[in-house]
Design brief:
Helix 2 packs antiparallel against helix 3 and helix 3 packs across helix 8. The chain has one domain. The longest helix has 30 residues. It is mostly helical. It contains nine helices and no strands.
């Protein structure tokens, strides 16, 4: 985190791009487990409180990274998902996989929104939506909305950081 802070101070015009990369890494299926959203959140707070970037740029760059990560995960699922379901791990859990597919089909926007708001499943939800070959146009629309809602939540957390920190 110190490296990110130093880079941000030395390169204030490039600092918001870090949020795009972190947004991508925390929502992409391959890297999402390794890059928790806490990094993105702490960097966003740092950039805002230090006056390195304004809340509008923070939100736009974080939104862009998260959206690109979701779309990339959907594409990975669409291309490789059916092959992954041939693995023994998933064959043994065929009933669970089918339940998950039915849940995504039934709740669509709610499932995508829940996936976006829940850090532990965030990188996997778009991948499974793509794997199940659910309608891309619906996913695109719902993901745009879910990322926007997530971005607004990020704004609230960043702006209210001092108030939240004083609660503890």
């Amino acid at each position: 985190m110190d490296v990110l802070k130093s880079f941000s101070r030395e390169n204030p015009y490039l600092a918001p791009l870090l949020l795009t990369f972190l947004g991508f890494f925390e929502s992409f299926v391959i890297t999402g487990v390794v890059f928790p959203s806490l990094f993105l959140y702490l960097l966003a707070v740092f950039l805002y409180l230090e006056g390195i970037s304004n809340i509008f740029l923070i939100t736009i760059f974080a939104y862009a990274g998260s959206f690109i990560g979701d779309q990339s995960s959907y594409l990975m699922g669409r291309v490789f998902g059916t092959k992954i379901f041939e693995w023994n791990f998933f064959k043994k859990r065929k009933e669970r996989v089918e339940k998950t597919k039915n849940w995504f089909e039934k709740y669509e926007f709610g499932a995508i929104l829940l996936g976006r708001m829940t850090p532990s499943i965030r990188p996997f939800a778009p991948f499974f939506v793509g794997s199940f070959k659910l309608d891309y146009k619906k996913f695109l629309f719902f993901d745009l909305l879910a990322c926007a809602i997530w971005g607004l939540g990020l704004v609230l957390l960043v702006v209210l950081w001092e108030y939240i920190a004083n609660l503890f």
